[in-house]
Amino acid sequence: MREIHEGIYGNHSGARALQKKIIRAGYYWPTMQAKANRFVQHCDKCQRFANLLHSPPKAVICRFGIPRVLVSDNGKQFDNPRFRQFSQELGIQNHYSTPSHPQANGQVEVSNRSLLKLIKTRLEGAKGLWPEELPSILWAYRTTVRIPIGETPFQMTYGIEAVVPIEIRLTTLRTAAYDDLGNEEQLRLNLDLIDEVREMAEKRMKRYQEKMARIYNSRVKPRQFLIGDLILRKVTLATRNPSEGKLGPNWEGPYKVVEIRRPGTYHLEDANGRRLPHPWNAEHLRKYYP
Fold this sequence. Notes:
- This protein is α+β, with helices and mostly antiparallel strands and 290 residues long.
- Among the domains are: 2-48, no CATH class; 157-220, no CATH class; 230-287, SH3 type barrels.
- It is 47% helix and 12% strand.
- The strands form two sheets. Strands 6-5-4-3-7 form a five-stranded antiparallel beta sheet, with no helix packed on it. Strands 1-2 form a two-stranded parallel sheet.
- Helix 2 packs across helix 3 and helix 7 (106-123) packs across helix 8.
């Protein structure tokens, strides 16, 4: 284990990768996973060169203030007692998206899809270099006008457009006519107008969302259920019985609808009266006829 982790071809990988390397080398024992976790946990170099912990109070709260609502998926980094306590102490409402329904957190999904496209375009075949390219990709994203709001993310945050490299290599009016006094006055004016810019962006966003909603509603007819209805839930990779494989049923249940969270999203309980921890979207449900 020590040779694989820190030997001539070791790279001080995590416990899971260490375990897989040991298996590929032809070794296995029942407590290997626990042993690998303990070995990596006590590795001196892994502890000294570990990634710095992301601190929300320092990186987010002290920079942008306390948010009113935090929308996230159901990952354990967000759905755990420690994070819930952190949110409760600051008065932040935690809203969790519906499992297996990425549209519930659509703004994040759209942003991630845009970033993924930029990463693929920039890297081409060198996929392993994405961490080095990520800062410049984020810079490009933040200085590009977003269609729904008609502004750049940089402008929405700081009240002024960023100076991009092309303005340094090829002189522009903004860089050529720069003077300290005029720059200070313009910055103060931009700060005075930033609320108006954000209000206009919010109005554009609402119009854009209404337009997209009309297009979506004209194409999609959602399933609707009533409280007390018996329904089946689609079997996903996370809920499928591994022993059944592809021969298992596609739907599980029945469950009973006990609450309508919002149109198309429902809280369910099983046959024993136990309520499922998260609401489910109608996309993954179908009516059950006893």
